[in-house]
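A quick word before the example. In earlier lectures we treated sequence and structure as two separate objects. From today on, think of them as two lines of the same record. Here is Stage III sporulation protein AF written that way.
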Amino acid sequence: MFLKFLRSWIVNIATVVLFITAVEMLLPNNNLKKYSKFVMGLILMVTLINPLIKLIDKDFNINKYYYEFSKGIDHEESKESFFQYKEKNIERTKENFNKNLQEVVDKKLKNKFPKGKFKVDTKVEFNEEDNNFTIEGIKVGFKDKRVEKVKKVQVSINENDNNSEEDELSKDIRNYLSEELGLSKDIISVNKM
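And the structure line, produced from the sequence above:
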């Protein structure tokens, strides 16, 4: 509709300009030509302004033209594209957060327990309600690098504490991470590799 309107307006302007040019070429150079130029200018102005007046009289509504234009764009496709982008972005951010958390935990453990070798695995989830990432769990595998003398081992059936020293180190690691990261001890598990 708008394109038809614009086309007819341009055709009218072109027709009037051709008409004015033809009339000016036919008229002799005298006072009549001055008056005819004045009248032809008025006709051209009316031709230019007339469509604008018609639009104003018809309650021209820009929203109607915007709606027609936006129908050409598939809204569902753009929404789907937005959600796919959002999901990919969340997944990438989650991977980066997970990687950075593992590096931070590993660095803190190496600084606190320099004689140990650690393997850190973390689990992070995105909470859509809070729009935040939450740490679901931290698994730490450790190996003591210290070289100790071989101790005499006694085998006993009633012994419950096989490695009380390792259990103590596990507790120390768990407590340290809980304090440093401000996390519950329940989501931190420490095992020997």
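Notice the following. The radius of gyration is 41 Å. We will return to this example when we discuss secondary structure assignment.
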